[in-house]
Specification:
The chain has helices at residues 4-17, 47-50, 98-112, 135-144, 223-230, 243-253, 258-276, 285-304, 315-324, 331-356, 367-377, 381-391; strands at residues 21-22, 60-68, 84-92, 120-125, 148-151, 156-158, 163-174, 190-203, 209-222. It is α+β, with helices and mostly antiparallel strands. Strands 1, 2, 3, 4, 5, 6, 7, 8 and 9 form a 9-stranded mixed β-sheet that branches. The longest helix has 26 residues, at 331-356. It is globular. Bound molecules: serine (SER). Serine binds next to strand 8 and strand 9.
Length: 402
Amino acid sequence: MMTTDQTVRTFLEFFRERGHELVPSESLVSPPGDPVLFTTSGMHPLTPYLLGRPHPLGRRLTGTQRCLRTTDLDEVGDTTHLTVFEMLGSWSLGDYGGSQSLRWGWELLRDGFGIDPGRIHVTVFGGDEHVGPDRESWQTWEELGVPVEPTTHENWWSNGPTGLCGPDSEIFVWTGPEIPQGTPTSDDRWVEVWNHVMMRYVRYSDGSLEPLSRPNVDTGLGVERLVRILQDTPSVFEIDLFQPWLTTLPRLWGSLDEPSLRLLSDHLRSSIVVLGDEIMPSATGRGYVLRRLIRRVLTTLWRDGPTRTLSDLPMELIEHTLGHFRQSRDPHEVRTVLLDEERKFGLLLQRGRQVLSHRRFSGPLSEDDYRYLHDTHGLPRDLVVYLNTFSAESGTPPPAVP
Ligand code: SER
């Protein structure tokens, strides 16, 4: 069985053998001017080079990059989504074309990782009112004998409303028990593992598209998702990388239902990585995403055990996580920030309960009430809603803080 580390090494070696130089993994903090808060894809640190600047290591690159996607926050706990994850990538900066990239992708999945070709399906860009179908990718897959599904929106990749973009081709692997059924858009047991973007355009704020003078290929493969397939586990949470979490957390905090265990493992691990990149909890921006992650951990913990505390968290879990992502921040500092946030949030909840117990707030709250609670008592709306749910006599358990 291939471990996560072996999977990463196999990918990087495959591309190094084909002339790609290894680029270092960068921080989760996206480069200045990038329209997103966090690095959400391996291409972010390479943006200037994809736009045409020569890269000091040449025109064929490969690497692994930690990424964070908040759009998926509510999906965390299902079988495939994680907040922080690792993306393997390969890039052609105006060197080889999309067809070569797809052929290598096919070869690596089949021969390098041993995936049964009968469990692979791909999608390609079928064209829209601005850009025609990606015939080259379509034809390549047909020559390789791989089933193809054309789509429009799902197969156009962009970094944001403006900037680098282009048609893509996504490779899916069947994770169902029997013979594959349906297509990637009709059956979610087809799991997307690898996206090959034919990065040929820049989009401007007026919506216009300009072809790049030197088209690139940008590919990204989700490590944990691929490992889940290689290790044949029911979800990403049972792969080797999560074992320390799955064995330690129930030991610390008693039996945890599966959604809670997944949420705690994902959000704690993600918080550690975000802290590892020197981001601190705050009321806005990146720091607020971090604060939300930690607060969701705490509300999940306290729902069934008000005395549970992050001070129980062993240093080894923090060290294991920082080590995996090659982050050099002192684990003791990370732990101190987590405990500090826990203390602050505990006090805020206490104060919130006191304020909300006042007669003025016993009925439905008006917009003025919410404003007053926020401006005078520092209680954000989502927290007030949470506290009201928590104190309701309905007996339903409160949700994780939104
Ligand atoms: N940028 C593409 C993605 O994130 C491929 O890396 O899917």
